[in-house]
Specification:
This protein is mainly α. The chain contains five helices and no strands. Helix 4 runs antiparallel to helix 5.
Length: 116
């Protein structure tokens, strides 16, 4: 079991921004939320398909264009994307509602999702 999954199952992943509720039906998933959000706000710089000189300073290897990539970097996504002062995306973009939804997705389902 991965450390992230263990911590989530142990209750350390209690929703911070979503008000504590994971009762959305259907729950947010990579397919119905995350893929679109990451495509709009992150993958323009954080894509495994981009060469280094097209990443606008995004480090190689921090790729958010797949479910597995987002799972690998989930805590970094949270720290840099959920708070409005987290710095990502650098040009702004996500609404407060979208940021709350990212938090909910990270807390409630991301770590237990499997690739479609």
């Amino acid at each position: 079991m991965s450390l992230g999954l263990f911590l989530w199952l142990a209750g350390c992943g209690a929703p911070a921004e979503s008000g504590g509720a994971c009762d959305r039906d259907p729950p947010l998933s990579y397919t119905n939320f995350g893929q679109g959000f990451m495509g709009r706000h992150c993958a323009g710089c954080h894509s495994s398909l981009l060469p280094e000189d097209h990443r606008n300073g995004a480090p190689l290897g921090i790729d958010l264009d797949t479910l597995e990539g987002v799972q690998k970097w989930a805590e970094r996504v949270r720290v840099r994307t959920v708070p409005t002062d987290g710095g990502m995306p650098p040009g702004g973009g996500p609404t407060e509602q979208e940021r709350a939804m990212v938090s909910e997705w990270l807390d409630c389902s991301l770590l237990v999702e499997e690739a479609p």
